[in-house]
Amino acid sequence: MNEIMNYFNLKYLKTIKLFSIILFSILFSNEKIIYSVPIKGDIDMGLPYYLERVIKEAENDSAKYIIFTIDTFGGRVDAATKIKDAILNTKIPTIAFINKRAISAGALISLSCDSIYMTSGGTIGAATAVDGSGKKTSEKVISYMREEMSSTAEANNKSREIASAMVDDEIEIEFLVTKSGDTLTSKEISGFKEYKLITLSTGHAVELGIADLEINSLKEILSYLEIPNAKIIKNSTNWSEKIVRFFTSPTVAPLLMSLGFLGLMFEIKSPGFGVPGIAGLLCLGLFFGSHLLVGLADMTEILILVLGILFILAEVFIVPGFGITGIGGIGLLLFGLFLILLGEYPLESDYNNAFWGLNIGLLGSVFAILMFFKFIIKSKIYQKVIPIKNQKKSDGFSISVGYEDLIGKIGLTKTALRPVGIMSFSNKEYYCRSNGNFIEPNIEVKVIGVEENELIVKKI
Fold it and tell me: 201 φ, ψ to 5°?
């Protein structure tokens, strides 16, 4: 009898334990997790790198929603396209919370979300592609951007016509019917006219179905979604992403290029390999590494840059002076850096931006070199660190290459001396210079002196 009672008590305890586990699981699973992600400032190539990580984390946490708080005037089209693809590919419902503005690339990102909420006084639109000077790009680029916008809008049941007119100012809209049945024409929205881009205010965006609702805070969004007690995870860039975005920004990237070239220039013109070369390679490494992480560089650019650096190292250690290997190495570096600035899917505007970015880097290098030779090396601090003294011939210094023994020898001019040319002596050719007179080829001349690596000659 006791055994039977023990059996039922044990079974009862197991049932209670199982029921507790199920109840705990239900209670735990009812906790709603919301990811809140800011998209502010310029849309650069470091932003997709960060947002892809956040979306993956939200998927791992089985988040209920991802809310993107957007306030941007736009940026790189290729960056916005990557962000759009990442948002469309996630199965988690996404919300674009436009807190003031979503212009240009920001409009494309907003349209990729399942829902769009806008604050009072917000704007969305003006998404045509422009070059570095703000001028409209070619029809090829406009066509691409127009279809990107319209297909993205269509994917989330938004108006293709309005999305297209945000990009192409040649599209004219006679009128559109709002949700409430009213009619809006170019009198209410100037962007409906030809040669005008559509930019919608919050009110018009809601009326035309581009935005779903006017809401002024994240708290109101949660109340509207009937999850006021949801757990909000506010995600921001980590330290590594901040560093990558800093080094790939349009301001810092040309500066890194300038410092990199400056260091390599000094290294080529100085013996051995020291601080300038190390600093130059470090700056170029930071520039290249950050762009590699965000997808702006691939193996092609790696090979070009490595080859350029090898040419420069050959110039420093193997080939004397500054010649074809040094020029070739710098040329390869410039070409590799230009390809990196273009990005993976370059548009016409990206070519202009890359061109100007590279020019800014080069001009910065030239300016830094001029300032260095004009001011820094003459400063007392620099002369204390690196003392500079004249090397006089009377002290035994010489920059000739051992031609003094040829003084008094007689040779034959191979070319005309105007006054510089080539002479031969004992089946060897030498650079030579007359004492100011023109000397024809095949004339006997006598060596009367040596300056650096040139023989000074006179006609016999």
Answer: -75, 170
Domain segments of the chain as ranges: 31-237, 242-380, 393-459
Predicted TM-score (pTM) of the model is 0.62
Give per-residue pLDDT as tens, 157-168.
999 999 999 998
Q: What is the pLDDT of residue 304?
A: 80
For domain 31-237, give its CATH number from 3.40.50.300, 3.20.20.370, 3.20.20.140, 3.90.226.10.
3.90.226.10
Architecture of domain 393-459: Beta Barrel (2.40)
